[in-house]
């Protein structure tokens, strides 16, 4: 049974002795994306990353997000984040606040082992490393959470729940590893595939329970934001039964078909979530305006949950997100995210808005003389 997330689980994710007002003051990137070596200093709670398209603004946000949850918010594999002709990247950040200081760093190799450090001491477990700060990303691509395929919605739920729930983060990692191993066994004729079933079933049970719970929490938050502009609902479409024994029996029944396909054909990796507004599926029946609005409110709901439950510094990473918003929703976005401990915004030019009074400006032109994919 999943315990109440408003109680012990939220406290479980908070590291001991770290004050909640710590902020990132330095970021170092080595062979990350197109940056051979870059160092940035952040001296304010709101930071503007300014410059034309392609100079690496988004890469800075991606680096901050990766240090938070060890995954790219763009869904990119490690080989795409490593600079051309290199085989690894290194990221580090310094957190300061309340008289405390901490240096976190990581080395990520293509096809190799990951190394994690806090104050130059090795951190053996990923779940311990990600207990430093939380990030919530806002980007134009967020509309794909509603309008895109199932993988977009699974990634949204995975990123949200992973930053709040160590048990989910661990179960997701176990599930992904076991699926890769089981699929290899199925493609090789099936010998040994049954050895991976217990871990797959156990991790699926954890993932399903958390996904169902957070779907209900998101419903509440999005409807609060919508007010009287429609009734939002999330319908979970799980690929496997929630009961472990039923899932085991399903895997037995599907074995012949899986052998022919060389892949696991049921499980959390195939789950989907249907978003509806007033009973109508948004993906097929929603207007562009409704899809953009609900996508924004889903991300604002994510921010509200992370801010309320994480008990850690929460960073907003906003990647040119206001470009397609009208004036009312732009103002609402600024109002609702102003409680973030620190916020980073990318723009091609400085916005004329009082919200950014006193914000630090960092102007980017090129990355090591080469325009990047930022």
Task: Describe this protein with a few key phrases.
alpha/beta, Rossmann fold, 13 helices, 41% helix, disordered N terminus
- The mean pLDDT is 90
Q: Using the coordinates shown, work out and report the CATH topology of the largest domain.
A: Rossmann fold
CATH homologous superfamily classification of the largest domain: P-loop containing nucleotide triphosphate hydrolases
Q: Outline, from the CA principal axes?
A: globular
Can you describe what's shown?
The structure is a single chain. This protein has 374 residues and is an alpha/beta fold. It has two domains: 22-133 and 312-374, P-loop containing nucleotide triphosphate hydrolases (Rossmann fold), CATH 3.40.50.300; 143-311, RecF/RecN/SMC, N-terminal domain (Glutathione S-transferase Yfyf (Class Pi), Chain A, domain 2). 41% of the residues lie in helices and 22% in strands. It contains 13 helices and 14 strands. It has helices at residues 5-12, 57-69, 78-81, 126-129, 143-147, 150-164, 166-187, 197-226, 244-253, 255-261, 282-285, 288-309, 327-337; strands spanning 23-32, 35-41, 46-50, 88-97, 100-109, 115-118, 121-122, 134-138, 232-237, 272-277, 280-281, 314-319, 342-347, 360-363. The strands form three sheets. It has a six-stranded antiparallel β-sheet. Strands 8-12-13-3-14 form a five-stranded parallel β-sheet, with helices on both faces. Strands 9-10-11 form a three-stranded antiparallel β-sheet. Helix 13 links the parallel strand 12 (314-319) and strand 13.
